[in-house]
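Practice problem. Given the sequence and the SMILES for flavin mononucleotide, write out the predicted structure.
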Amino acid sequence: MLKGKIGLAPMADYTDYAYRELCREYGAEFTFTEMISVEALIRDKKESFQMLPKENEKNIGIQLFGANIESFVKAGLMVQNYGDWIDINAGCPVKKVVKKGAGSALLKDLNKLGEIIKALKNTVDIPVGVKVRLGFDEDIGEKIINTVQENNADYVIVHARTQKQLYSGQSNWERFKDLSEICNIPLGASGDIYSYNDAKVLIEEYGVDFVVVARGSIGNPWIFSNRKPDIEELKETMIKHAKMMIDDYGEEKAIRRFKKIFIGYTKGLKNARELRKKVAYINSYGDLLNVVSELK
Ligand SMILES: Cc1cc2nc3c(=O)[nH]c(=O)nc-3n(C[C@H](O)[C@H](O)[C@H](O)COP(=O)(O)O)c2cc1C
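Answer key:
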């Protein structure tokens, strides 16, 4: 079961093995895979299996998304030996996902969400948690918490925005005070955690049991240990991160994927703008080393 107070949130196209391992090394107490499609798993899609945790990973949740109860069960049974718990994605606001009835669309059909939780709980041997938003169009946080706990989920993580809000406005931390009153299972918070202190405040003052950090960890694995690296450590970490990705994906794909993380690592640096432009055109590890060496 998810253990710890501060962990890495699932992020599609980011939280791959290299990202997770780096965050873990810098203090993330638990991690999640990117969201993985239950339908793709059932169809034996190779890329989806590559997204599963590796053997050495501990305290890691496998996040699944889908809209069909039987598919969740089939996929859950297929993947349960790879991770420590299964997390149901009931929060993704992306059109492509919602259109199919998955992600945050499940918040429009709480009966179905309940059925998915129940079905998984009855079949897999590992804990099952859920990651939700406050609602689809409107905030129905209490109803969601009730559904989740009535169906015996092992924890719930709330990103305190509705689907309609996407990423606008502020994550409504005040709502954690209300929700923690009625929530009898571990309650996790997500949304706008940009420092170690934010995490601490949420746990100490808003009544949540743990937090997950997403955007605040991009290029900043130090958020998990409340440190700021000097420029040398920053450069070393970037290189290490890119190397780990190359081991997994090969040079071309790794460098392509690393580019957006480069933006995170260079936030606030003197010549970030110029070098971000340069990095857009690189396609080899050697090129990356050159750009990184120029960072000031
Ligand atoms: C690029 C990106 C990808 C994301 N992918 C997922 C995902 O696969 N599953 C999920 O539950 N949430 C996903 N999220 C939502 C985050 O886990 C988190 O709940 C949200 O970003 C708010 O937290 P933050 O303010 O710390 O970023 C994603 C967010 C971002 C920015």
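Check your answer against the key. The domain at 231-293 is CATH 1.10.1200.80 (Non-ribosomal Peptide Synthetase Peptidyl Carrier Protein; Chain A).
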